[in-house]
Fold:
Amino acid sequence: MSLTPEVVTQIAQLARLRLSATEVETFTRQLNDVLVYVAKLNELDTTDVPPMTHVLDLTNAFRSDAVGAGLSPDEALANAPQQQRQAFVVPKII
Amino acid sequence: MDFEVVIGLEVHAQLLTQSKIFCGCPTRFGAPPNTQVCPVCLGMPGVLPVLNQKVVEYGIKLALATHCQIAPYSRFARKNYFYPDLPKGYQISQYELPLAEHGYVDIEVDGAQKRIGLTRIHMEEDAGKLIHDEQLPVSYVDLNRTGVPLLEIVSEPDLRTPEEAAAYLKVLRNILLYLEICDGNMEEGSLRCDANISLRPVGSTTLGVKTELKNMNSFRNVQRALEYEIRRQRSLLEAGEDIIQETRLWDANRGKTFSMRGKEEAHDYRYFPDPDLVPLVISPEWIEAVRATLPELPDAKKARFMSQYDLPDYDAGVLTAEKALADYFEDCVRSFPQAKKVSNWIMSELMRELKKEDQGIETCGVTPQDLARLLALVEEGAISGKIAKSVFMDMIATGQEPDAIVKAKGLSQISDAGSLEALAREILAANPKEVADYRAGKTKVMGFFVGEIMKKTKGQANPKLVNQLLGRLLQE
Structure:
């Protein structure tokens, strides 16, 4: 398996990261190293092992449909860089 | 070239739970901005979402009602994308191993039945709401809706016309209303519909390039948007041009779909299992327990209306196509147990008025008891059927009870033989020629005499009595 600089650039875009040409080069190499390392797992024969969907051996953790206390609008908006009309303000995106 | 239209719908139904899907915030619509939020739905670091059991129960209900196979083992996934209405940077949804798959619903268009396949039903959380400023280049984010539970229902590409799409949506909405798990309000967005649509040459088995339509907030708009999009795609294809796979927004005011620029970069949601949520195991016992709580569904209700009330197939179909209408009918029949008469009134007078006002039966000012009382007045001979129709119009307009309207307007039927006889004699005396005609065998002029009496009594004379009277007087 080999990761190309194009894929790294695309992943960066999806994550809204701006990478310089040298960074793309560095990360391509580093991510490839990681993948090669992890690829070692493919050497295991897992034919009879059911796929694992969660590390915990737990299922069905539920809450009942009851309303609990939340935050006040002031608390909810406390970390907002910009707020107005009791709402978070963001650049317009349509 | 002739084209075949291929349509599939993705419907999002907001569930009528008290609290959100992964936290205890209320789900009430229309609250002031950011008053129904907490660290979980705001996506603060370190919080743990916990699944609302009722959401699963409602999902099982819908899955059973639409003949789906319910997954014994399902799980939640993160759908990753950046948008200001999504505080975590991902939506908790289901991807692989959804709640239910392989279902169907039956629709009817122009008298023909058709089975529409359901690909899947899955649970997910709703996003927040953006309010765009009219002047400034900013948007206001209200996160009250973030985390409100949704069921996403994906149909197979089995729909061939906009009419079929609308019929499918109506059937699905009706099932949700029967189950009482969604209020089905398309204007408020508690029921939303996206459509995938493509054209292909008739006879072709591969699918053409599709577009995804969004922002259609009524049955009518779904149909109009699809009709527009068919015309647009057809003219492009006929001109030898390519369809671009993209998301298009329906603009109801301009009657057109528009490309959503900026979202054109290929979607890459990088789904992966959400480590915060443990897998969901649904046992056969749980499914059976939920099945036991299922209400009577539209098809079963229709069959019962036909057998219990002896209604024709058509009547039963119309009355059960909406739960509120079916309930209205039954309430009315309880007070006035002549089912076919009630059905006739509901399907003609009542539904015509509701349609005219673009109103639902829920907000109708005439209660089932009032309608039953009106029919009883006709039955008792207190008013004629014709007068009843005008009283009904007043009831619709004012919400008053029929007795009050009849009394206030003096509409009681004249069944007093004495006063009617005097009037009849007067009319016969004033029209000697017609009397002579009648006696010469032209019995058709009877209608003329009846008409004259009705005119004089403003339609209030008891028609049966008038006929008897005239018959007797003309024999004299």
Summary: Residues 3-288 of chain B form one domain. The mean pLDDT of chain B is 89. The first strand of chain B starts at residue 3 and ends at 14. The CA atoms of residues 21 and 137 of chain B lie 33 Å apart.
